Amino acid sequence: MRVVLVDPPPEFLQERERLGIDRRDEVWDGVLHVPPQPTMTHQRLAARLIETLGPLARARQLEVVPEPNLLDPTRGFKQFRVPDLVVVAPAATSERGVEGAAELVVELLSPNDESRDKFSFYASRGVKEIWLIEPTTRIVELYLLRGATYFTTLPDRDGILRSGLFDLELRVVEGPKLRLAWQGGSVEV
Questions:
Q1: Does domain 38-188 have CATH number 3.30.479.30?
Q2: In this predicted structure, what is the pLDDT of residue 5?
Q3: Beta-bridge mates of residue 71
């Protein structure tokens, strides 16, 4: 269950921070959104994706950042989201989080989550590609930014999606697992 709070009292926010349970909190136009904690399946998949995408990102002078604050630098902590993973150039980051355009956002879906509702914010921040992944089935939705709108990428007749960022093929295989394949390698997560 998600929780949305308009004008939460400062004491509430301080207590969440003191307890360390505010890591995934998001603020949308000044409104606090508190998502549910991720399942173990969700966390294991995130860890495997970080492990897999890390070397591919570094080869392109990028980095994979888990659960960063992706913020509008003009609004700071009054307007930010916390995706599961972001692939970004180090120059687009600060101690506060990701303040420039990210190359890729990966959202691992949870029941009743708000991942799709974040698209307009991600477009305003120039995020070029979004992957939505259902952790149990490993089904991927891949979206590419064109102008100010995201368009879904359809799989080919073999069920393969292609990510332009890493020249990567994504496909659900038996398990279910998600196979990520690139020139010179592949892995199933």
A1: no
A2: 67
A3: 80
Q: What is the pLDDT of residues 134-176, one digit of tens each?
A: 999 999 999 999 999 999 999 999 999 999 999 999 999 999 9
Boundaries of every domain in the chain: 38-188
pLDDT at 12 (0 to 100): 77
- 115 bridge partner residues: none
d(CA 52, CA 55): 7
- The model carries a pTM of 0.90
* 63-66 and 93-94 strand pairing: unpaired
Q: Which is nearest to 115 in space by CA: 16, 38, 176?
A: 38
Residue burial 45-58, b: 16+ Cβ < 10 Å; e: rest: bbebbbebbeebbe
What is Dmax (Cα atoms) for the chain?
54
Collect the ranges in the chain with pLDDT lower than 50: 1
Number of neighbours of residue 3 by Cβ within 10 angstroms = 11
Q: Three-state DSSP class for 55?
A: helix
